[in-house]
Specification:
Number of strands: 9
Structural class: mainly beta
Number of domains: 1
Order of helices and strands: EEEEEEEEE
Radius of gyration: 16 Å
Number of helices: 0
Strand content: over 45%
Largest sheet: 6 strands, mixed
CATH topology: Immunoglobulin-like
Distance between the termini: 39 Å
CATH superfamily: ApaG domain
Shape: elongated
CATH architecture: Sandwich
């Protein structure tokens, strides 16, 4: 399976302070924008996430699609969705990839670079 530079993934994160009532529970939302600059229609088939909390605890998530969908993304178009993760520490990271298929039937990975999840003002 190839990796693709024609699919870009941008991430925006937000700490959800109003969504917790436990001492060691830190909920975050992340908004993902997937842009297709290739010359073909692509479909997001699977996702893989590696979530690492501030203690080094790693959690892997494999699954079909995102938010219950396997979206098609046309050339020059974007797909945006919001999801979330709950950490046991106030800081952590996420990274991963999407397994995608183009209209020629070729499968490829669209990487998701490491991004931080952090409670505001916790880091200098």
């Amino acid at each position: 399976m190839q990796s693709s530079n024609s699919i870009s993934v941008k991430v925006q994160t937000q700490y959800l302070s109003d969504r917790t009532n436990k001492e060691n529970e830190f909920p975050f939302a992340y908004k993902i924008t997937i842009s297709n600059s290739s010359n073909q229609l692509v479909q997001l088939i699977n996702r893989y996430w590696l979530i690492t909390d501030g203690n080094g605890k790693k959690t892997e998530i494999h699954g079909e699609g995102v938010i219950g969908q396997k979206p098609y993304i046309r050339q020059g178009q974007t797909f945006v969705y919001t999801s979330g993760a709950v950490l046991e520490t106030p800081v952590g990271t996420m990274q991963g990839y999407y397994e995608m298929k183009n209209e020629s039937g070729e499968w490829f990975k669209a990487p998701i670079e490491v991004f931080s999840l952090a409670v505001p003002n916790i880091l200098n």
